[in-house]
Design a protein that fits this description.
One of its GO terms (molecular function) is DNA binding. The protein is 36% helix and 30% strand. The chain is an alpha/beta fold and 318 residues long.
Length: 318
């Protein structure tokens, strides 16, 4: 999940702090001052419209930024562009997915009267309210999932693991280092049997060989073993190694969900990336069930070719 955070320049530090809270809730914050928000050569309003189509929700920080005269009296109000942007995002994302936090008691537009807002100075209570709000968005997204959905890997995990218990998890990828770290942060999950296929390099003959990537794979294996032996989130773990370079990676949760993403390797930079956006496919449609079945077959066929390199582990406490 990606959430845009906007504020005046004077309250940028508050926006950064809110961003750190969101990161602790497995959310990707997008602050208004990040280079990707306003790229060179783009009109500000056009950039904001584009951004509103590439985030899931938005948080605006309203402060006592500017002095105005209202009905003969001096008062402090929200920065005009922050208020304007709030209107844009609430229109694009819905008012349920666009909220504002107040620093002090700035004058608000009368159209906003009655909307519940958070007091950013009450940090403990507002963090709890933010987490409840994020969970409500995730729950709403889960209800909308039917067939195919484009999302990010963390949100795909949250949806696929919503029932907490998975009998069989199959993963085919190069390293899984980042994804296993994400999985370790999700509470109260139970995976009966995980089968992980990871890349194996021949550092003499492999044109894709990269020592840093091999280190990432080793760290991923350590994290998988930690989920088994220390976190006790996995009862049985099999790790397979394959020796060719794939162009896709995927995760299969039982026969219910398939998460599919592209793998890209830039030879000149010796750099590999897993696609930021993934496709989440569920078994609620005939087409979805066909895709999941096809990838289970593909996984099992690949596994047969490499079963001699399997490493097997078992949670001795289970």
């Amino acid at each position: 999940m990606r959430i845009f955070i906007a504020s005046s320049g004077e309250r940028l530090n508050m926006a950064i702090e809110v961003g750190s809270w969101l990161e602790g809730m497995n959310v990707e914050p997008v602050l208004w001052n990040e280079p990707e928000v306003f790229p060179l050569g783009a009109y500000t309003w056009d950039a904001l419209i584009d951004l509103s189509e590439n985030v899931d929700a938005a948080i605006f920080i309203f402060g006592e930024d500017d002095q105005i005269w209202f009905r003969g009296e001096s008062t402090m109000t929200v920065r005009d562009n922050v208020l304007l942007e709030y209107g844009l995002f609430s229109g694009k994302l819905s008012k349920a997915n666009t909220i504002f936090l107040c620093d002090g008691r700035p004058k608000l537009a009368s159209d906003l009267e009655g909307i519940t807002w958070g007091d950013i100075r009450k940090k403990n209570s507002v963090r709890i309210k933010l987490e409840n709000w994020i969970n409500s968005i995730r729950a709403s997204n889960q209800k909308k999932v039917k067939g195919f959905k484009i999302t990010d890997l963390n949100d795909a995990f949250q949806i696929a693991l919503k029932n907490q218990k998975t009998e069989k998890l199959r993963i085919f990828a190069i390293s899984t280092f980042k994804s296993v770290q994400m999985l370790r942060l999700i509470n109260d999950i139970s995976i009966n049997h995980a089968e992980i296929m990871l890349r194996e390099y021949d550092n003499k003959n492999d044109e894709y060989y990269d020592q840093s990537m091999e280190g990432a794979i080793d760290n991923a294996i350590l994290n998988w073993k930690h989920m088994l032996e220390n976190d006790h989130k996995i009862k049985e773990l099999d790790i397979f190694r394959f020796n060719y370079h794939p162009d896709e990676g995927y995760y299969i949760f039982d026969d219910k969900y398939l998460i599919l993403g592209n793998l890209k390797y830039e030879m000149d930079k010796k750099e590999y990336t897993f696609s930021k956006n993934v496709m989440l496919i569920d078994n609620q449609t005939e087409t979805g069930r066909t895709w999941i079945k096809e990838y289970i077959t593909r996984f099992e066929d690949t596994k047969k070719n490499y079963e001699t390199s399997v490493m097997q582990y078992c949670d001795i406490e289970s």
